[in-house]
Design a protein that fits this description.
Helices cover 15% and strands 42% of the residues. By secondary structure, the protein is of the alpha+beta class. It has an 18-stranded mixed beta sheet that branches. It is globular and about 50 Å long.
Length: 288
């Protein structure tokens, strides 16, 4: 493996290097190292990580996500939308609704097509998980996982939710003052979370709107996190701030997502997916 074709895509600024594994052959033992390499903005391409678009035995396509530190993630909402766009536009999926396999689950995606281009994607993200053992989070299982962390002589309460990957959601009164880069990395590696955790700070607004910033495990600050937006909406519905079956607009740094937690328990996410560029990557020798 000296080179391979790639496509760089983003969902609300959350950008990854996508590799079509129907056509390319990357060695399993080199995937983590390669994710670190291509993500480097100085010597690689620059991204939040690398996503592989793979054949699946149980769905139309499979997604594997590697963070920019080389760790493999279980799910990625923004990545799912981009994989759906790629799969439809490149003929991997022939229908506008199809299934995508992740490490944690199988989801259904529906692409919204205009002039043969996918601009928006709706994904059924499945049912949220609140049991600590399944998030995973240390402690006894409860109906709803809540806890608090002390930082700089202050107590910060959070709600824990899994959307196929773990999230700790902190509500703040002013998103501009959220301790994203100070408390975020501490919570990410906290002993409460044996597999680490994604950390969201949110500000609830009237009219079903949420301001949102995120510290993603393995990547740090990113422009958006689709599963995090789902977790934030679910957590605030549990708190009685919003209602089920009513779309919530989540304002992320990269743009907006529409999240709906339906009465039947499934969480629906709708948002954009954008192709940035494509080309050939030469390993250890830069980009062409």
């Amino acid at each position: 493996m000296n080179s391979f074709r790639y496509t760089k895509m983003h969902g609300l600024g959350n950008n990854y290097i996508y590799v079509n594994m129907f056509e390319e052959n990357l060695r399993e033992k080199e995937l983590s190292k390669l994710a670190v390499e291509v993500s480097n903005i100085n010597t690689g391409i620059g991204s939040d990580g690398m996503i592989l678009i793979c054949p699946s035995e149980v769905a139309d396509v499979k997604m594997r996500v590697f963070n920019n530190d080389g760790s493999e993630a279980k799910n990625c909402g923004n990545g799912l939308r981009c994989v759906a766009k790629y799969a439809y536009e490149h003929g991997i999926a022939n229908n506008t609704s199809f299934k995508i396999e992740t490490i944690s689950t199988i989801v259904e995606a529906t692409v919204h097509v205009e002039n043969n281009i996918v601009n928006q994607v709706t994904v059924n993200m499945g049912k949220p998980i609140f049991q600590r053992s399944q998030i995973p989070m240390i402690g006894d299982d409860q109906e709803y996982a809540k806890d608090r962390i002390f930082f700089e002589e202050k107590s910060y309460e959070f709600s824990a939710v899994s959307m196929g990957n773990p999230h700790a959601v902190f509500e703040v009164t002013d998103i501009k003052k959220a301790p994203l880069t100070t408390l975020g990395p501490i919570v990410e590696k906290h002993d409460l979370f044996p597999e680490s955790v994604n950390v969201e700070f949110i500000e609830c607004l009237p009219h079903n709107e949420i301001n949102f910033v995120v510290w993603e495990r393995g990547s740090g600050v990113t422009q958006a996190c689709g599963t995090g937006a789902c977790a934030a909406a679910v957590a605030m519905i549990q708190e009685g701030k919003y209602k089920r079956d009513e779309p919530i607009t989540v304002h992320l740094q990269g743009g907006d997502l529409q999240i709906t937690w339906s009465a039947d328990g499934d969480v629906w996410m709708k948002g954009p997916a954008v192709t940035i560029t494509e080309g050939i990557y030469y390993t250890q020798r830069g980009v062409k």
